[in-house]
Fold:
Amino acid sequence: MDDTGKIVIKPQFRHALTFLPDGLAPVKSGNEWGFIDKSGKLVINPQFDGIFLAPSVKRTSFDFLNLYLHYLH
Structure:
């Protein structure tokens, strides 16, 4: 939804978080997380069991993916 209340991205995800500085937002589809752009297009298909967000640190979506993948190994 934009500032005027207009729906910009059709509701289609179980969960969606705020957009990150790089313009991508984490979304949960089924039981997995991926990332969408501001038009709602999936840029990184849902494939991750979880994501980690550090609100006090400005990171990009790819930084979060690298942190998560590092955590898995």
About this structure: The first strand starts at residue 15 and ends at 16. The chain has one domain: 15-72. The chain has one helix and four strands.
